[in-house]
Amino acid sequence: MKNKRHLKIGMDYHGVINSNPNYFKALSQELSYRGHEVHVITGGPCHEVSRVLKELSFCYTRLFAILDHYEGTRQVQYDKQGRFHVDDELWNSAKAKYCSSQGIDLHIDDSLVYLQYFTTPYCCYDIENKQCLLRGSPCLDFTLSPTQIVNKLEKNFLK
Q1: 24: pLDDT strictly greater than 80
Q2: Residues 6+ apart with CB under 8 A from 152
Q3: Which domains does the chain show, CATH number per domain?
Q4: How many helices (H) and strands (E) does the chain have?
Q5: Handedness of CA 119, 133, 9, 55 (dihedral sign)
Q6: Helix, strand, coil abundance in the chain, percent, nearest 5
């Protein structure tokens, strides 16, 4: 029997999932139901984001938080007020490195700051219009149902 390839979709938490939690929850459920992976990729911290995702009953495969990642490598500095700092280059490239290492098919984020580091297809989510733009042209229209979005993703990435 031939193994069916599954999608790996990255979704940013701050600015994407939290901007429309019910919609992205339904989308993640549809992706999971069809056997695909959902990677929540965020600045962090992991414990706060995972708590909210649990409260939402949000389906995801893995959670990656930049802050936690760099704390693990001892590359985070804290000032006396408890504010943290990570080198901009490290911070801005972390999501791209994660997506590349995990074989993510598409990452959905609301910030263009990270785009220059990505080789993985990257959709920039426009919160107001509920569209995801890929290099300036509409990629995904999140006014469509989650089922329609997953159909489009499967069509485009599982050729």
Answers
A1: yes
A2: 140, 144
A3: 8-157 (3.40.50.1000)
A4: 5, 9
A5: positive
A6: 40, 25, 35
- Bigger pLDDT: 26 vs 139: 26
Crossing angle of the two packed helices 21-33 and 146-157, in degrees rounded to 10: 50
**pLDDT tens-digit profile of 30-80?**
999 999 999 999 988 999 999 999 999 999 999 999 888 877 778 767 777
Give the span between the Cα atoms of 48 and 113, in whole angstroms. 23
CA distance 7 to 124: 18
Output DSSP code: residue 68: H
Integer-rounded Cα radius of gyration of the chain: 16
Provide the H-helix boundaries in the chain: 21-33, 46-56, 66-72, 88-102, 146-157
Does 13 score more than 80 pLDDT? yes
Tokens (6 digits) for 75? 């590359």
pLDDT digits (tens, 9 = 90+) for 95-149: 999 999 999 999 999 999 999 999 999 999 999 999 988 765 568 999 999 999 9
Asked whether 105 and 121 are in contact (CB, 8 A), the reply is yes
* 3-state SS, residue 93: helix
Cα dihedral 47, 51, 53, 55, rounded to 10, equals 180
